[in-house]
Amino acid sequence: MEVRSDIIRHLRQAKGWTQQHLADAAGLSLRTVQRAEREGTTAKESAMAICATLAIDLAELSVIPKASPSELQPVRIHNPVITLGSGILIGIIAGAISTYLFLGH
Q1: Does one domain contain both 50 and 89?
Q2: 57 and 12, same structural domain?
Q3: Could you count the other beta carbons within 10 Å of the beta carbon of residue 57?
Q4: Cα distance between residue 21 and residue 7, in whole Å
Q5: Can you say whether residue 40 is alpha, beta or left, with left for phi > 0 and alpha for psi between -120 and 50 degrees?
Q6: What is the per-residue pLDDT for 7?
Q7: Which of 32, 58, 60, 71 is the most exposed place for a label (fewest CB within 10 A)?
Q8: pLDDT in single tens digits along all 105 residues of the chain
């Protein structure tokens, strides 16, 4: 998953920790912490371990992917109340017309 590498680095340095110290405290390899700080990617389980060690929520570390305009699709809103109301109204009108035609004026 994508993570905010700047936050990891800032919080680690604020504690005066090396990458190795963070890795040891989180139960991760040094390579995993280095990748998280350099590339901003890590497994979700690793991100959760880093968050627990740095005492932050996963949401603070997560990068929310942005959709390009071509990926966006219009949303159709289906309102069952309007659909049901329209169906009832059509039924009443059809019944009135049928009654008028078959029973006479």
Answers
A1: no
A2: yes
A3: 9
A4: 16
A5: left
A6: 96
A7: 71
A8: 999 999 999 999 999 999 999 999 999 999 999 999 999 999 999 999 999 999 999 999 998 877 777 777 787 766 666 667 777 888 888 888 888 788 765
52 and 10 within one domain? yes
In a domain, 52, yes or no: yes
The total of structural domains in the chain comes to: 2
Domain encompassing residue 18: 5-61
Which residue bears the tokens 């060690």?
A: 53
CA geometry: angle at 64 spanning 17 and 48, to 5°? 40
Query: How many Cβ atoms from other residues are within 10 Å of residue 54's Cβ?
Result: 20
Supply the pLDDT for residue 78: 66
Contact by Cβ (8 Å): 35, 41? yes
